[in-house]
Write a structure and sequence with these properties.
Length: 295
């Protein structure tokens, strides 16, 4: 976009000196002087007073400068808007999340996003909260969904935004003694085989801590990352399991009577670095979808 004469005049007005303005712009003083003369000829009136000490704007020059700066600002806004639209039409979004968000929160939002912007491409990484947080901090991912609290090598590199509260509920095999009940106590699971999330995951640590606080050490017979795999193993009678409320119908699953088995899911994103237009739009749609689902 050809705004060079206006930018050159803006520099002349700022420095009130042709040589200093030329030095800033990276052009020769004669070339800048020739541009100014050409601009004045086009406008039809002198825009500066010339003296041995430099230049000063004439009254028409002051009026011209105000409109020139407005034109530059509007042109820059137009370029930014066009680039943002291109980003939404052809951009890509890199998101990291755990099994619950990947399997049960993201699909609906991604589907809605692609209906509006079918040119967008998504890269989804399923990983634990700690790994997702580090990837966001390093710039490998645009944003992530994590279980709080979460920490990175440098916590100042990321910010978190609350997304939604999640309940963990017990699922049991057909014919199990707790089948058909609405709640359980940790003592009910003493000695019971448990199909659990992998050790070290945020969800597993929450479950183990709650059980130990009630004086029960869970008998874990299998560790898995996939929620669907846990549900399948429980259905096959291998043991009981604890999964997110989002993974089962509202009428299924037992709540814990001893303590709240709740976790807070949050959006994590880089601190001090603006998201791409595509990622920013996706974050807004994710928040809107979750809030509407909770009403």
């Amino acid at each position: 976009m050809e705004l060079t004469p206006l930018r050159y005049f803006q520099a002349i007005a700022r420095h009130q000196h042709l040589t200093r303005a030329a030095r800033e712009l990276g052009v020769t003083q004669p070339a800048l002087s020739a541009m100014l003369k050409k601009l004045e000829k086009h406008v039809g009136t002198p825009l500066v007073h010339r003296s041995g000490r430099g230049v000063a704007l004439t009254e028409p020059g002051k009026a011209f400068l105000a409109h020139a700066e407005e034109a530059i600002r509007r042109a820059e806004q137009a370029v930014q808007i066009a680039r943002e639209m291109a980003g939404l039409q052809q951009g890509h979004i890199r998101v990291g999340a755990g099994a619950t968000a990947t399997g049960y929160l993201l699909p609906r939002v991604i589907g809605a996003m692609r209906q509006v912007h079918p040119g967008l491409r998504f890269y989804i990484r399923e990983a634990g909260s700690a790994a997702v947080a580090e990837a966001v901090a390093s710039g490998e991912l645009d944003l992530g969904i994590v279980t709080l609290p979460v920490h990175t090598t440098d916590d100042r590199a990321v910010t978190t935004r609350p997304l939604i509260d999640d309940d963990l509920r017990l699922i049991v095999p057909p014919g199990h003694g707790l089948a058909g009940k609405r709640s359980f106590r940790w003592s009910d699971l003493a000695g019971q085989p448990v199909v659990a999330f992998e050790a070290g995951s945020a969800v597993r640590e929450l479950i183990d801590a709650a059980a130990l606080a009630a004086g029960v050490e869970l008998t874990v017979v299998m560790e898995l990352r996939s929620i669907e795999a846990i549900r399948a193993m429980v259905a096959a009678g291998i043991g009981v399991g604890l999964v997110s409320r989002f993974a089962i119908p509202a009428s299924e699953g037992l709540t814990c009577r001893d303590s709240d088995l709740k976790r807070k899911l949050a959006i994590i994103k880089p601190a001090g670095r603006r998201l791409s237009p595509a990622a920013e739009a996706f974050e807004g749609m994710l928040l809107k979808a979750v809030r509407s689902a909770e009403k």
